[in-house]
Amino acid sequence: MPPIITLIPIIVALLIIGLALPLAMGRVPPNAFYGYRTRASRGSPRLWYATNRVAARWMMIVGACVIAIVTTMNLIGAAPVTTLLVGANLMAIGAVLSAVRAWRLERRLASGLSGVDQDPTPRPS
Hints:
The protein is mostly helical. The chain has helices at residues 8-24, 39-43, 45-76, 80-110. Helix 1 (8-24) packs antiparallel against helix 3 and helix 3 packs antiparallel against helix 4 (80-110). The termini are far apart.
């Protein structure tokens, strides 16, 4: 059995997948605490659900990759610290990738929104 430290990335990846699943299914309404939150996405339900679906799918993909890579590293006997660092770095890169993909979609969709779809109420930053 691998040292417990090497299981931390797997546990975190499972947590990320579990948190991303409701976002990917469109079950989390716009809010200030959970999901891909920007002024634009919180101001338009269309943007909120679209960007969160994309971000969540990427996070689930990243979580699955982290689990696969860390499990493989554990099976081949990689050093525990190396396994932990690889898992942490993969999750960090995945978070950035997920945010960039959602941001690009947000920009593309926001440029095509009509005034009816947007909430004109200014939001505090």
